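Forgive a beginner's question, but would it be possible to get any protein sequence you like and the tokens describing how it folds?
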Amino acid sequence: MKNMGNYSPEETISQFIKAAERAKMYCFYIKTKLDKDGCFCSAEGTLSEVDEITFKHIEDEENIRYFTFNINKAREDLYDSFTWLTGNKNYFWAVDIENINHEYEFIFKFVVEYFKENREDYLWFDDADWFYSAADILKLSQMPYNSDWCSKKVV
């Protein structure tokens, strides 16, 4: 979740690319959709352990670690959408991570790098009644890997 007050989808794409680089992952297939006025609507992309050329030529994607993501624009109707969770009216679901394929440790590696530079953001799992702050994620990163981190709050 990101704060709507200082949100830029283009900056979020840049933050994803930088975090992927620090995590030694590849970020590609970034497709941005614009509205008829040329304004940002959404973006999607892939983060993988292999580069784009290798990814394109792999016959069985089940043998590589990757996930996809969607970046959404802030809309007025999303204001106050996570007050029930964060207590702050300005946070909304800016990014969605999909096609996880049970690669939670791989995702955790990326999330740690992302939150090192994005300390005001939160990580929320769909249908959970809890979330992680950047401080929570960074604290978790100092502990032995806990595979339950994505199914229950462990810090």
User: Anything to note?
Assistant: The helical segments are 9-22, 52-57, 83-86, 104-117, 134-141. The first strand starts at residue 2 and ends at 3. The chain is about 30% helix and 25% strand. The beta strands are 2-3, 26-34, 40-48, 66-72, 91-92, 95-98, 122-124, 131-133.
